[in-house]
Write the structure tokens for this entry.
Amino acid sequence: MSQPGILWWQKYGTTAQMAQAAVALLGFVAILFQINEIRDGNRAASARQAFLGYTDLAFKNPKFAAPDFEKIKAGDRDQRVQYESFVSYFLYACEEATAAFADRREWSASCDYDLRPHLPFLCEKSTAEPTYLATYSTNTQQWVKTSMKTSSVTPPDCRPGKT
């Protein structure tokens, strides 16, 4: 039956210790889950903030949001630099949004829509400076290149073709 020398409370003490260890392990797993959720929430908030910043910038600079690229090219250096910064901020905002909301197609659709008017600039820029797009993630580089191909924006003229 029972072994001599082991009292009933010793047997239950061991079971209690095992239960305590199991509860501690579950608590540790719950903490890891919480940390992951917090990280995802922070990434989503950061992406929303970046995209909101881009939207505000587009609202304040409609000449860059819906650009006349030939006019910008013919303009002064400051205007060209401002436009390049605008496009860089846009690409960064889209990079953040699509990474944070990979499962939500509306973010990609919004970025696709806003990218089209900037394709001639990106085509010329990446032709003149091949390392320009390398400053962005591989996904963003692929997205821009695919969009240029889909819209038939190719060097040397870098103008949208008929699709």
